[in-house]
Write a structure and sequence with these properties.
The relative contact order is 0.14. This protein is mainly α. About 75% of the residues lie in helices and about 5% in strands. It has one domain: Rhodopsin 7-helix transmembrane proteins (Rhopdopsin 7-helix transmembrane proteins, Up-down Bundle), CATH 1.20.1070. The protein has ten helices and three strands. A three-stranded mixed beta sheet has the order 2-1-3.
Length: about 325
């Protein structure tokens, strides 16, 4: 049977990101905002990685996972924000077919990996607080390495499936993507192929890769809160509750925006709403992660201070030698 669509339906070699095309005011503000948040995210996460690697006292499962999360967040925000800044600054909303596929592949890979990493971190905190006697035996180096490896592998396998299914489609309706980065829902909305398989895969795999770690993370923190409220003293209880609530807030922001984006039919796609949600889980969450998970932590602050003082002493020694 002949196709009802034109023969040149696969001739699209470039997509146009329409997120900022019609914006006439506020571009300078957005450039400053996105650049500031990108800088904070990059420097904050880089500092956490450096401190966690150089300070032996932070060679623990908790900071191993935080180091992975920090590296992931640097990669995650770098997938979209530089292109967004270029679109705003030089008015170049075009992205090649392969560039769009690569951007979507890494975006979904890193988002999936982050979900599993957050679940691994919740499991680590559960064992550290609720199963302290067996914590060292259960959360050894090999276990931590396996959990981190599984997180990264699941993220990339999940993305490989969705990227392959999405870019096998034909795009003959339009080459304009109603977003400021390449993502599954806006691409499905401009395809002239049957997207039923894509939507079923998006929902089914999304439950396994996205919703399951989300529930696991919430259950883990619920058990932690129950243990803290039952056993800790008032001062320790307040600190533990504050930590858990801040962690759960980041988890809900990350998963809530992801669920809103991927767990609904493409017919309900809205440029304005999805732009706001896209900024939330692509820019705001990676920027908040180092602040909430690490920079508020007393051990990290102490390690940073020791590192700064050590570098200051080395500089003084070099200066005195030169003189």
């Amino acid at each position: 049977m002949s196709s009802p669509y034109p023969e040149n339906q696969t001739s699209i070699r470039e997509f146009i990101l329409l997120g900022f095309v019609n914006m006439t005011q506020g571009k300078t503000f957005l450039i400053v905002l996105f650049l500031s948040m990108y800088t904070i995210c990059f420097l904050g996460n880089s500092l956490i990685i450096t401190v966690a690697v150089l300070n032996p006292s932070l060679h623990t499962p908790m900071y191993f996972f935080l180091g992975n999360l920090s590296f992931l967040d640097i990669c995650y925000i770098s997938v979209t924000v530089p292109k967004m800044l270029a679109d705003l600054w030089v008015q170049s909303p075009g992205i090649s077919f392969m560039g769009c596929a690569a951007q979507m592949y890494f975006l979904i890979s890193l988002a999936g990996a982050e979900g599993f990493l957050l679940a691994s971190m919740a499991l680590d905190r559960y064992f550290a607080i609720c199963r302290l006697l067996v914590y060292a035996r259960l959360m050894n180096k090999w276990t931590c390495f396996q959990l981190a490896a599984i997180s990264w592998i699941c993220g990339f396998l999940n993305s490989s499936l969705h990227t392959a299914l999405t870019f096998r489609l034909s795009f003959c309706i339009s080459n304009g993507i109603s977003h400021f980065f390449c993502d599954i829902p806006p691409l499905l909305s401009i395809s002239c192929s049957d997207t039923t398989i894509n939507e079923v895969a998006l929902f089914t795999v999304g439950v396994l890769v996205g919703f399951s770690p989300f529930l696991f993370t919430l259950v883990s923190y619920s058990l932690i809160l129950h243990a803290v409220l039952s056993n800790q003293q008032k001062g320790q209880r307040h600190k533990a509750i504050s930590t858990c609530v801040s962690h759960v807030t980041v988890v809900i922001m990350f998963y809530g925006s992801g669920i809103f984006t991927y767990f609904r039919p493409t017919s309900s796609y809205s440029l304005e709403k999805d732009q706001l949600v896209g900024v939330l889980y692509n820019v705001i969450t990676p920027t908040l992660n180092p602040i909430i998970y690490s920079l508020r932590n007393k051990d990290v602050k102490m390690a940073m201070w020791k590192l700064i003082m050590k570098e200051h002493s080395l500089l003084q020694c070099r200066s005195s030698r030169n003189n």
